[in-house]
Amino acid sequence: MRDTKESRLLLVLLVVIAFALITMDVRSGDQSPLDGPREVAASVFGPVEAGVARAVDPVGNAIGAVRDSGRRHDRISELERENAELRQELGSSEHRDSRIRQLDEMLGTAGAGQYRVVGAQVIAIGPAQGFSWTITIDAGRDDGLERDMTVLNGDGLVGRVTTVGPGTATVLLASDPNFTVGTRMEGTDELGFANGRGDDSLDVQLLNHRAKVKAGDRLVTFGSADGKPFVPGVPVGEVTSVEAASGDLTRTVRIRPYVAFTQLDLVGVVVEPPRDNPRDSVLPPLPDEAKKEEPAEEDEEADEAGDSEEQDADAAGQDGEPGQNAGAETGPGAVAPDGSTPGNEDPDAIVGAD
Cα–Cα distance between 151 and 172 in angstroms, integer? Predict the structure, then answer.
């Protein structure tokens, strides 16, 4: 539009009209004559404004999200950190309880066999395929360890020490195919040699091919001279299957070891063998032996019940008829209901009898 005299006059006229309408609208208050045109304008331009708002709101929300993203990220990080701390505390508590239980069981085994042990923690495990089944423990020469010492835990035989360093040692596990230990069967004292298979079972060659053996029979270490490499009496495992007797000079049985070789944590190295052979005393009690303790409590209950019955019988006797009580008492000191003493009418007869 060209800047002319007419255009300036039109602009001035429009400003004057707008000023007049504003003044009239303000002075009229709620009864403004412009309410009608205002409603018409709202109905016409309202949908346009709503559409523009929908188009602009995502942009505004995105700007607000970017502005608040820093605070939200900090809060999320704080919650994640608190969650990790709670999980760590829970895991540490469970791990601590497990280690305490393992230590108690190991000390119980060492005490039952009178083994002097040095406690150690498993800090590394060797490869299980193509190599020896070994573990590394955090005790070594500085702790009194030597080569060919027996290693055990609360369940039984773990293995033997093969390499010793200043602060660490390597233990060959009983599950290794190159591992061999002399065994003695509980009760029958049948001797044999247990060999690892590279899995969770052991094979035992019994020297007596006619040995009577069945599933559930238990074996312990036979022991070596001076307690190296094996001290006597350490639980090895229990029989799971028996091969049929053949013409061989030995008989093979399959046993399940007491130790879970894939779950080792705390172990004990026997640095001093026992003075006397513990034989079968280190083995856990049999289920039948645990059941034998229960009847003792039942007997006590039976005795208490018997005492109650006797007390009831005495009470019933005291509440009975006098004639019945008199008839029951027939001794020399018995007194009849009438005050006489039956059987004692003639005291001279009794003296004469003497």
Answer: 9
Secondary structure (DSSP) of 109-155: HHHHHT-EEEEEEEEEE--SSSS--EEEES--GGGT--SS-EEE-SS
- The whole-angstrom separation of Cα 307 and Cα 221 is 50
Token pair 């053996």 is at which residue? 213
Tens of pLDDT, residues 120-135: 999 998 764 456 799 9
Q: What's the DSSP call for residue 273?
A: -
Rounded Cα distance, 225 and 201, in Å: 26
| pLDDT tens figures, 37-64 | 656 665 655 565 556 555 555 555 555 6
Among the listed residues 191, 193, 211, the one whose alpha carbon sits nearest the alpha carbon of residue 202 = 193
The mean of the pLDDT values for the chain is 76
How much is the pLDDT for 296?
46
Q: How many residues does the chain have?
A: 354
